[in-house]
Every structure is written in structure tokens, then in C-alpha cells.
Write a structure and sequence with these properties.
Blueprint (H helix, E strand, L loop, with lengths): L3 E2 L2 E2 H8 L5 H4 L10 E4 L5 E3 L8 E7 L4 H21 L4 E7 L4 H8 L5 E2 L5 H10 L7 E6 L4 E3 L14 H17 L2
Parallel strand pairs: 5-6, 6-7
Antiparallel strand pairs: 1-2, 3-4, 3-7, 5-8, 8-9
Length: 186
């Protein structure tokens, strides 16, 4: 096991999990510093990243406009996202697109199909750091985190996660069970 998570010592994270920490303070270091400024995919409106720390689960969706499997996965994930939020509320799940695109126009068209948030394409350093932090070597990939940045699933696409023939509500409940197990083992 690594002794740090996103540059934060694990023992510090364990202590933090027992305290109520203001969302703005969570944004100061580690993973969340790369997610301070986000945009709504459907409108392009800016969103303050600290709001994601209020969500039970956070999905980082690594994707690219030129990737056929990404194109096929988007409608399935979007439907699951909507079902989960309808059943469990808006704070149950938030997804953030981490784009591999380099052309603004293609990124804009790609993200219009998504009901969630995106790291702005201009935030290249943040995007590269996220790809590196999660050792992303192929897309699409959906990494699920808890509100503290702890990895719940390194790849929640397919299997008992999200994808063709998968039930998104069952996947969500399975992820919550995994999160409970992780928290018990800390």
C-alpha cells in the first residue's frame, strides 16, 4: 500500500474522515486541487469544484471524442447517471469528464452529449496530472472515488459496474458496499 493518496498521508486522511471539513478546505491539496474549476458539459457554465466534495461518489470519466468505445459508453453512462440521481438524489453521484482531446471544437461536441461536469480543456496540467495519477493507458475508463478522494473502483466500466447489460442502480449499490468495506479496513 502506498503511504499517501494524492500526496496526502493516509493517516491524515483517516483523521480527516472522522471530522467535518469545509469543502473549500478539501480543495486545497491533493486530487481536488486539480478539480477546482469545472464546466457543465451541457451548457458550458462554470461550476466551482468544491461542490463535488458533497457527493457520496465521484466518477472521473477519462474519454476522448475520437474514441469509438467512448462514444458507445456515453449514452449508457448518461442513462445510469440520471437513474442514480433520480433514485438517490443529486448528491449520490457526480461524474467529471477528464478529456484526452486537444481540439476545443471536438471537445465541445463530445461533451454536449453528457449531463455531468468536465475539466476545462484549457486545464491541461490538471488533465495530465489526473491521467498520470490514475495510470490511464486507455479510454474509456471510469474511476470512482469517495468524497475524500479515496479510490472505490479503479475501473467501474463493465462487469458489476456501468456498461452494456449492467444495471446502474445495482452498480451504484455495489460501489457503496465497496466503499463501506474500504472504510472498515482503514
Amino acid at each position: 500500500l502506498r503511504s499517501t493518496l494524492f500526496g496526502i498521508p493516509r493517516d491524515h486522511l483517516a483523521n480527516m474522515s472522522n471530522q467535518k471539513i469545509p469543502a473549500a478546505e478539501k480543495m486545497e491539496g491533493g486530487l481536488f486541487q486539480w478539480l477546482r474549476k469545472l464546466v457543465r458539459c451541457d451548457s458550458g457554465a462554470e461550476v466551482l469544484g468544491h461542490k463535488i466534495t458533497q457527493c457520496q461518489l465521484i466518477g472521473l470519466y477519462f474519454s476522448a471524442s475520437w474514441c469509438p468505445p467512448c462514444q458507445l459508453f456515453i449514452p449508457i453512462l448518461a442513462q445510469g447517471y440520471k437513474q442514480i440521481r433520480e433514485a438517490h438524489g443529486e448528491k449520490a453521484l457526480e461524474i467529471i469528464l477528464v478529456p484526452l482531446d486537444t481540439e476545443e471544437a471536438k471537445w465541445q461536441v463530445h461533451m454536449e452529449k453528457m449531463p455531468w461536469l468536465s475539466v476545462p480543456l484549457q486545464a491541461r496540467e490538471a488533465i495530465v496530472r489526473l491521467f498520470t495519477a490514475f495510470s490511464i493507458s486507455e479510454v474509456p475508463r471510469l474511476v470512482i472515488l469517495d468524497s475524500m478522494g479515496m479510490v472505490v473502483s479503479e475501473n467501474a466500466r463493465g462487469g458489476s459496474g456501468f456498461g452494456f447489460g449492467c444495471d446502474p442502480l445495482m452498480a451504484y449499490n455495489s460501489l457503496l458496499k465497496d466503499l463501506d468495506k474500504i472504510r472498515l479496513n482503514r
